[in-house]
Amino acid sequence: MHFDFSLLTTELSMFILGLATFVLGLVVPSRSRRGIGAFALFGLLAVLGLTVLNWDQQGVLLNGMYLVDRYAMFFKILCLSTAILVIFGSLRYVNEHLGNHFEYYSTIVFATLGMMVIASAGDFISLYLGIELMTISFIILVAFRSQDGKSLEAGIKYLLQAGLSSAVILYGFSLIYAATGTIVILEVAHATLQGQASPLLIAGMVMLVAGLGFKVSAVPFHMWSPDVYEGAPTPVTAFLAVGSKAVSFAALLRLFVAGLAGVHQQWDILVAVLAALSMIIGNLVAIPQTNIKRLLAYSSIAQAGYLLVGLVTASPAGIKAVMFYSFLYVFATVGAFTVVAVVYNKIKSDEIADYAGLVQRAPLAAAVMLICLLSMAGIPPLAGFVGKFYLFSTVVSGYLWLVYLGLIMSMISVYYYLRVVLVMFRDDPKDPAPIEMGSAANITLIITMVATIFLGIYPNPLSEVANSAAISFFLK
Amino acid sequence: MENLFVSMAAGIRSLLGSGGLSEWATDFLVMFLKLGAILVYILVSALWLVYMERKVSAYMQCRIGPNRVGPMGLLQTTADIGKLISKEFIIPKDADKKLFLLGPILIFMPPLAVFAVAPFGKGMVAIDMNIGVYYFLALASLSTVIIWMAGWASNNKYSLIGSMRVVAQMVSYEMPLILSIVGVIILTGTLNMSDIIHAQENVWFIFLQPLGFLIYLIAAVAETNRAPFDLVEGESEIICGPFTEYSGMGFAMFFLAEYANVVLVSVMATTLFLGGWLAPFGLTFIPSWIWFLLKVYLMIFLFMWFRWTYPRVRVDQLMEFGWKVLVPLSIANIFVTGIGKYLYHSLGW
Amino acid sequence: MDNVYSLLAFVLLAGMILGSALLVVTLRNLVHSVLWLIVMFIGVAGTFLLLNADFVAAVQVLVYAGAVCIMLVFGVMLVQRPNMEHSNPINWRFKLAAPLVGGLFIVIGLLTAKSQLVVSGQEVPAQTVQALAPILLNDFVIPFEVAAILLTVALTGALLLVKEVKANGNGS
Q: Where are the transmembrane segments (chain A) (predicted)?
């Protein structure tokens, strides 16, 4: 049997990096473990370089069980960039609040590996195991501050959520298998495109919407996310909010647009309703929040709603819009959470009220927070505006009500984003001492800010890359 | 002699067939009789093994052992069972009554079910199961929970400590037990016990898998909770472990089940490593089932020898030895066996 | 179901599985729940046996009834209660849950009855074990390796979380 290992270059190098990080952590004496973070960082950068170099490499392994196309590559690059930004921005946070355990870095690497498997998975079993690898790594990361009750509570909640959603996803897979007799997504696509939609397939599809709805924290499957986001260590929250959500969308697209395209009529309204609910509830409940992490959690529920809009039409334009939006969402979210982490390092609080006068204490952090929040709200000329434009333009014909709803909810979201900005810029600080953040965090913040502004003004390159990736998705 | 039991089965079958029974009913009845015969063998054998144990220990300690009831004390254990049956079966007031009663009933199930697939001689296997070895491992793992259940239901601190020790010990030693058998399975490429025995026609696996045999032996002693790994019922610390509250026949059931388990692991050792019912040196005039029983009782004697030679180990020593010595060694054994088989094939021997 | 006996066996096994699963959820005593869970797993193994999947049945017994439940036993023994009565907290919101679950069950049952199931018409191979290795190590090698990584991560992660608690306990 021919097995092309070169298609697995990124996954294999990621696996070796994870093991090397772990073994190195065991071998080196505890006082020189500081370097492990840097090691993992450079390793991830190398893997990122390798992935970009392999951009043109395409192929199918094991009769469609593992798909290496530009679509998968795009999401792999996205996850790697997120992991790099998260590690780079929080080296100090990890030292001070997580006891500088080397396992933190190896677990992040393995979680990223899980995300890569999800992005490339071409059958239900690979997909499920990828989801589990990512989820179990996240359970460990979420509960990492095990002296902290909130972190443990978040870990338990995430564990229960993960178990429940896995059960629902597996049930969905088994029903689809019973209806079509195959577990390979492309063969499922053949079966659904040829035959009539069997009722069992529809039941399985509903299960998948629910199970993956948990993963992307769409309403009404969102209950876990504010508590988990609040309790988890802040860098982990950023990673969870971006990486986990983005690859869950990758799986959703792969399953629904590629696999269940034949029953599009049955699921588009379901997804549209989920999108609408997520936008409404996420944005409205965010308004009364007083904790910045909870606020960002509800905002991320709303963002899941926006992203689901791109799924509704099952068109290349929709896929491109989802990919584009999730990539710029990386910068906005990681930027915002990095600010939260560096501020927490100093003032030991996540309350919005304690951000008073942040602009006097840490001008860069305040500026980045401003840019990121405005980008999430979709104010031109920032990247979020372009992303939302792409997303909503796909549904203008046919789902105009969704467009109006999205616009209204975006306006509402401006209110609570600006409330944070107002506190940072208008109020006087209680303690005017400047917050020094360390050069690594500074560089991360500058990267996210520049990327957010740049993608807003000049979105063409990323847009073209997303376009070619979306086209590769349909070439089967 | 060789075909004594096989022709007995054939005779019964033809007798039933001539009686006008359908083929299906005949098969069913013959199977029932086979399993019944195995059941009787196990119970009788467990009974006499108690006598054997006492005699072996006595000679090792320069005593005589039981010698009053029957010729050479042969009926001693029968008398003991009679005594135990006539004793009152006390159920403690705070015990979980149903589980407490279920314990001694269920404890015999796993070993009895496993014996159904044991090959006692040429053509003498009640059910020739495709996955025989795996079936043995799967069912043997159930004993743990039953002992734990009995200990917990007793509602006694010694029982609880003992049952937690059972759980810890049996789980830890199941790993090396399973992994040590994998070497044999790599060599034969089958899980069927008859096929494994046939594969040993030229050389017994004890010579090809000496390390595997050693690990199996140690792990088997621990799995049957016998000295030097009998922490579960370490008398000096926790009275009688999970069985503390059991009296009369309830206690006797656990006691006999231990011996049934000893027979079981000896049968497995014989099948997997000692060539089963195959006769050594071409001594085929002795029937295969006699060879099989000889080897089994040799193994049982070895277990008794262990018991009366070594002192009991400590809990932490037990755990450390299991996880840090036996498990790595058995994994190394699998590794070496796999490479060895590959080399063997590629050299074309 | 080719004959009435396997149908009968299936009905009995299904009753055993569902009944013991219900008891696992509703019984007040956590230890009894664990024991019924074992009965449930053995019932599932029986169903596999009925489908001629003898190896999977043995795996079910060894891994679930023999090992997973032992892990649960350890968990139960860490529950700090003077006695095990009422150790399995249940909210008896049956009025809400029963119609919901029952409705879902009926809907899925109806959908199943209405749809055409894909049945592979292949014969059951005489040797069920030998075919497993090529399947695991050729056709499903990527999921197989991912599962291996997954277990490694879970193991180290569990150790990490437990170690941390212990260090904390010593410190305070």
A: 12-28, 35-53, 73-95, 102-121, 127-146, 158-180, 200-224, 236-257, 269-288, 295-317, 323-344, 364-386, 398-418, 439-458
